[in-house]
Amino acid sequence: MMIMKFLPSKALIIKINLVFLACFLVAYGALLLRPSTSVYHEYAASLVCSLRECHHKGEGGIKMKAVLEERLVVNEAKAEKKMVKREKPSFLNEMGRGMKIGMVNMEGEDISEWKVHGQIIKVKFEKVSKLLEWKELFPEWIDEEEEMDGTECPEIPMPDFNSYSYMDMIVVKLPCKYPEEGWGRDVYRLQVNLVAANLAVKRGKKGWNNGNRMKVVFLSKCRPMVEMFRCDELKQREGNWWYYEPDMDKLTQKVSLPIGSCKLALPLWGKEINEVYDISNIESSTKISRREAYATVLHSSETYVCGAITLAQSLLRTGTKRDLILLLDRSISKPKRAALIKAGWKLRFIKRIRNPKAEKNTYNEYNYSKFRLWQLTDYE
User: Fold this and answer.
1) Strand 47-49 and strand 54-56: pairing?
2) Is the pLDDT of residue 244 over 90?
3) In the 8-state DSSP scheme, what is residue 40?
4) Tens-digit pLDDT profile for residues 96-129
5) Of 37, 71, 237, 252, which is most buried, counting CB atoms within 10 Å of its CB?
6) How far is CA 74 from the centre of its chain?
7) Which domains does the chain have, with CATH numbers?
8) What would the pLDDT profile of 338-359 be if each residue is shown by its tens digit?
9) Where are the transmembrane segments (predicted)?
10) For residues 365 and 301, is the Cβ–Cβ distance under 8 A?
């Protein structure tokens, strides 16, 4: 009875062993039959592989080389087809030849015809992040007295200016989203304007070559930013071409300022101390040959009267000879006006300008009043 009981167990074990042995033999055979990858690596230079198979090259590799060259020519032809060929502006013919011409953001434009006027220098820069919004550069509120933290602005990438030679002219393709809502607050448009302005200041020839002024030409259906390229500097316009000869001294001053209101141009206080910021060295080294003034605007509220008084006192302590002009409306009471005059301000009354896009009774309802500063034509 004991012998008969163990016989089925031995038979089962034998069957299991046979199954494992068969699996092992199949796996071993598969490994033996698999081709070695070393064959390909050893003769890689003589094999051409497609999606289906590998086969030997034609004699001397000439056939494969011809295929690659043919594809390269086709790709170049496609790239040329994508290039936009525009008619050059007629005023370009008056500028002569032999110039060094910087090209900014002109990818996709056929610039071959520009080469007859001189050497083309392609200026490269990293495009600003799409995540950077206008409100980060121009916030609604900043800590003017830096009681919490110092003010900082997000970084806007610029070219490596020192890697480029000096230029006679800069040609810039300026992005324009008009008439989309908020087109004037496009950060990429701001970046390209800044690249053009900084390039003109840092790599422009600034009146070299017998007094010829730096030339900046824009290609855009939108006007370049008047904050950098002023209306009286526009020499010619032809379709979407804008030709400027900027005042380099004024442009240099503008690019030295912070990009937006996210950072104060000149803090009232030294960093992390309670001492008034000392600008006497700046003032003493500045020769004032023209009539100039410090100007600001107060309207709709008396909230900033104390700040205006403090500002006037700080400026006068520097020994400045500039006038202090304060534009204000009738919402500022007579006692406050008297205090402002005593502080050193010369008052000029204005009529507020309403922002048509602002909601009623909001902080920015009359913020267009700042444009009244442009009416101070008796100052340079």
Assistant:
1) antiparallel
2) yes
3) H
4) 889 999 999 999 899 988 999 999 999 999 999 9
5) 252
6) 34
7) 90-255 (no CATH), 283-375 (3.40.50)
8) 999 999 999 999 998 888 888 8
9) none
10) no
Residue-level pLDDT at 45:
43
Tokens describing residue 160: 């490596």
Contact at 8 Å (CB) between 101 and 109? no
61 φ, ψ (degrees, to nearest 5)? 70, 10
Query: What's 172's DSSP letter?
Result: E
Mind listing the pLDDT tens digit for each residue in 60-92? 444 444 444 555 444 545 545 578 888 889 998
Tokens coding 377: 């034509």
Q: What is the per-residue pLDDT across 8-62, written as a single tens digit (0 to 9) for each? A: 566 777 878 787 788 888 777 777 666 554 444 444 444 444 333 444 444 444 4
Largest CA distance in the chain: 127
Which amino acid is present at 143?
A: D
DSSP 84-102: BP-PPPGGGGGG-SSEEEE
Residue for token pair 């009359």: 366
* Three-state SS at 217: strand
Tokens 């909001």 correspond to 362
Question: Is the distance from CB of 256 to CB of 212 less than 8 angstroms?
Answer: no
pLDDT tens-digit map of 189-216: 999 999 999 999 999 986 554 456 899 9
Q: What is the DSSP letter of 262?
A: T
Neighbouring C-beta atoms of residue 92, cutoff 10 Å? 20
Strand stretches in the chain, DSSP E: 47-49, 54-56, 99-104, 118-123, 169-173, 215-219, 234-238, 241-244, 293-298, 323-328, 346-349
Half-sphere exposure of 283 (CA within 13 A, CB side): 15
- DSSP assignments along 284-331, one per residue: HT----S--EEEEEE-S-STTHHHHHHHHHHHHHTT--SEEEEEE-TT
**CA dist 43 to 46, 48, 57, 59, 65, Å?**
5, 10, 11, 14, 17
